[in-house]
Every structure is written in structure tokens, then in C-alpha cells.
């Protein structure tokens, strides 16, 4: 279906575009609490993917900008890491309040640069980011080590949990605001300072996020943003000798390159990489719930989500009905202007990404059946990077559309016979970020949660996340956790402190070096 929008929606877009150009007239870098222009000598355009129109052109960061940002973060580290947990907590509470005041701007700018429907940015991206900020405001006061104890008999030991230093983080283009928050918040709540490189396609809300932190009173240099290419700015940031840790979210292929560079300087490394989430429907499942969950889980953010449902495995008694009902529901989804209230699905991030998705589907026609979708719409949507919701059936387990991350509004459906087969197929890709199991049988569902190798397994739902719970993958989906108190394991060093309690000059163990008992 097509939702054409109206003149009011176009006016909202123009207003947002004008606000962007005014707000970021001083450049798309944010270093030591001030905006700046990049010094690489090259420019880049933020493009509205729903129209193909340029929104904002800026100067890209070069190595010199990265060095300045890292120096600012390093200079801010002693004061920020030395602040009490209560002081950092208060600053983050103020930060959450500023973000709440700016919620509508954040939603409009996110929709403009990503093509997300406003209902998604207003109801998911922005509230989730504000909640995440409020969560870490509280969690900052609970960074504790192990309580003291006399483990050797003659000594008292305790554990300190300390900030690592300057964190260099790289965020992707699919959830620019939320990914900025996921990178920045646990790092600074733990006392680190940070330099974030957002995707050059989508820097706007990362910059707003950093500016809001300054407005909230977080000291200059604690949060810095450099907007440049991965080759120049990203690799310089990852390899910088004064960066103590790297956190990267993106494709598995780029993650391997990040790991290679980080390893050369022996950095702490956190990777959240690709996904190919299975959606396993057992024959006792609520079919209506599974169909609705599959369409929502596959099409969230136009399928540009590492945890999106991409491989539906349906036990054979339900398979045919699942395919037909899922196709019908997909056909009811309304593509259209992201600023129109009735739009369900916006464009992909770019025409390049749309063409990549289309190529996967076109190649699949030689070995599988495209049940619905499989094309870009015409008419007034043809200017944008739109692609119709697509359902593919009849593909083999080892085929490209089953094994590779497509990152678009494409769901592949395969049948299975026994429960053993369903779980085996679910685990049969290199990835392990997320999965879901659909069953009314608690024992069957529990088995699936135990045996599916993924960092998150939902039961009778797919996609919801909450600030209190961790997010991260297995195998080629990376390692380490975003969100929750578990993320502090990535952003803190553990130090053992040991006190002698005897006041004896000659310790008994000294005999191993000199003397006898």
C-alpha cells in the first residue's frame, strides 16, 4: 500500500531541513564542547532517503580532527573519572531531562536523515534513548567491586572497578541516535571520556545528543563527535595510541578490520556485528500472533536492524497458512512519506542500499519463489530509496538469502519437521545475535531458549528491548554487551588491592627466596 502524504507533511520536512542547516552551520564535528568544521578538505551530503534531496552538506573530519578530539577527551578524563558516582549520576539525570525537552527535534532530525516514519522515531528511537540515559544515571551509583575479605588469612583484599580512559567508538547508520546513546552512556557513566564517530550518512542526532550533554553540564571534552569516513577518521580513531578502548557496531566484515587495527595497539575491544535472526514457529504456536510478529519483526526500521526477523522456520503443519497470511499482512503495510502520520514503512537508507537489497531478491528468483514484494514502487515514491516488503519461500538452507545478511524488508520462510530440525536450522548460520521461538508449550519454548545460540532469544515476540537487559551476540555477531549494568564489564578495569595485616617484616613466604623455616 502507498501513503502519499500531503502538503502539511512536506512543510514539516522543509522546516526540519531548514532547522538542520541553521543548527549545524558551524560544522558536523563537536570537540571539547564546541562545534567545528572538518579539516579533511572533502565534503559529504546528508541526503533525505525518501526524496533523494540533499539536506545538509558538511566538511568531513580528517586525522587532525580525530587527534584534537582524542586530546580533548584525554584532558577531560582526570576530572570526570575523579568525580563521585553521585556527581556523574546527577549530570546524567540532567542530561535525560534535556533530551526529553528536545524530543521532537531529535525525532524530526532522525526521520529526516534516516527516512524512518515519525511514529517510529517518536515512539521508539527517542523514548528509548531518554530511558537509556535515565537508566545509566541510576546505574552510575552502583559501580561496585567485590566486598573486602581476608582470603589468604594474613591479607585483606578488595576489588576496585576503574574507568579505562579514552574510548573511541564507531556507530552505524541504522539507529544513529540510539547507537550514540548505547556507546556513550555506559562509557561516561563509568567515568571514561569518549570520541564517537557516527556514520557519515547520519551524523545529525549524534551531534544533537552531544550538544544536549553540554547543556546538561557535562564537562567539555567528556563527549566528542568526529564525522568522517571509516578509512580516514575511523581507522585513525581505532588505531590512536591514546585511545584505550574501541567499541564498534556494524557489519562483521568491517568488524574484522576494526579488530585487526585495535589488536595492533592491544586495546580493549567491544564488537556488535551482523545478525541473521531466526524466527522459529512450532506447530502449537498461536498462528495469528506469529504472523503479526513476523511482519513487525521483519519490517522494523525497513528491515535495517541486526536483530530483525530474517529467517522464519515454520513447522510443516502451519507452513502453508503462515506463508499466505504473512504475505497478505505484508501487502497491507503502507509505504510513504516518513513525515505522514499514516506511514508504516519508510525508505531504505540510500539508493545504494536499496539496489543491494533488490540484487539479493533478483538473484533469489532463480532458486526460490518471491511470494510478494520484490520490487521498488513507482509513482511519487520512485525518487526515494523505497522497496516493497518482500516474502521469499522455497529457498534452500544453504542459499544466499538464508545465509547472508540482506539488511532490508525481506523475510525468507522455510519449513521444518521435528523440533530437533527447527533448532538445528536456527543455529545454521555464522551469526548469533537474536532469535525468537513461538510455542504455547513452556517446555518446548524453554528448550529453544537453551539451545538456540544467540545473545537474545524472545518467546512469542520479536524485537522489544529494555534498558535493564543486555544486548550483544555470539560467534560472528561479535562479543560484549550494550545496555544494562552488564555493559560496565566492557567499560571498566578490574583492579585487585591487597593489604598486609601482620605488620611482620619477615613474611613466611620469604623463605622461598632466602633462608629456612
TrEMBL record:
InterPro entries: Ald_DH/histidinol_DH, Ald_DH_C, Ald_DH_CS_CYS, Ald_DH_CS_GLU, Ald_DH_N, Aldehyde_DH_dom. The active site is at 272. Keywords: Oxidoreductase. It comes from Streptomyces glomeratus. This is Gamma-aminobutyraldehyde dehydrogenase. Pfam families: Aldedh. The keyword Ubl conjugation does not apply. Belongs to the aldehyde dehydrogenase family. The keyword Nucleus does not apply. Residues 40-497 form the Aldehyde dehydrogenase domain. It comes from the Bacteria.
